[in-house]
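Table 4 source record.
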Amino acid sequence: MGFFLDDMMQGPFWIAVAQIIGVNVILSGDNAVVIALACMMLPPRQRMWGMILGAGVAVVLRVLFTLVVAQAMEYPYLKLVGGILLLWVAVKLVVPDEEGDGKVESAETLWRAVRIVAIADIVMSLDNVIAIAASAQSAAERVDMAHAAAIKTTLIIFGLATSVPLIVAGSAILMSLLERFPILVWAGGALLGWVAGDIMIKDEALNQWFNPAVIASLHYWAAAAGALFVVGAGYLMRSRRAAAKRQPAE
């Protein structure tokens, strides 16, 4: 284990850590949106805990995916299923559940928000882990070629863990904006729908049915369709809910 201390005393190690943090923060923009949208459902006193736990879950899942299942990216149908799941999460965020008169058990509400963040991160991390793993691999080889595998694991865990405060800060800023400008909730849901469509069109299974050139030309159309689906489904569900509320009064 002595080589760890030697490597950590060198500038390249900390440059590599900064690189991993930078990549993760850039790729975590979608996660910050999910965390902000999910935590808006919480009572004000629980929002900070929701952001901290949500970001923590996101980082733990990002570490696990990067270390263990990055190779699963190419499994057919995985992205299609994940994209559908993310569409469901996005619609749930723009049309939150209503619980009677708003009296919801606080612990249940908190963990529901964390679950939403976890589900969304599992899906959105599928693409992100490849970039993080590649960055860690090249950085680890620059730090210590002889122990590159061990250094890579250390960089991934340390770099992603130290990203939590930045993700929480970004989520807090987004949540304050969402409260001031409610229309941004729809923009956030549309963004998640865009990501879902983008994930689904990249599934390897589609290459068995369509010409890869056709799929490439539909890249942005699929993403736009995902965004429109979330906004359209959310609008219809909210309209039906509002109509159902008005019925007894009439």
